[in-house]
Amino acid sequence: MLRYCRADQLEEWFVHGAADGFNLLAPTYPIGLVEFAELVIPTLQKRGLFRTEYEASTLRGNLGLPIPENRYAAARLQAKVA
Fold first, then answer.
1. Out of 6, 23, 40, 44, which residue is the most buried by the measure of CB atoms under 10 Å away?
2. How far is CA 39 from the centre of its chain?
3. Angle in degrees, CA 58, 66, 56, rounded to 5
């Protein structure tokens, strides 16, 4: 019951645009976090609301951010050309 109540509430907020992400603060640690991970997350995954795998191997890649140019490597290349 607990898992569906929490999952239903998170789904409602997300689907209706009330939230685009969540920060978790377990009421009791570590059991509150363990319960969320073992009960709520699998329910959200079954509903297609929580990823089951990461798309990339880095945080930057999972956020869809480009890899910035290394300013030191760029300066070294310019020094070789000059």
1. 40
2. 18
3. 30
Type of residue found at 40 = V
Q: How many whole angstroms separate alpha carbon 2 and alpha carbon 56?
A: 32
Question: What residues contact residue 24 under an 8 Å CB cut-off, 6+ apart?
Answer: 33, 36
Q: How far is Cα 20 from Cα 13, in angstroms, rounded to an integer?
A: 8
pLDDT at 1: 52
pTM exceeds 0.90 for this model: no
C-beta of residue 49 within 8 angstroms of C-beta of residue 14: yes
Q: Can you tell me which residue has the tokens 């910035």?
A: 68
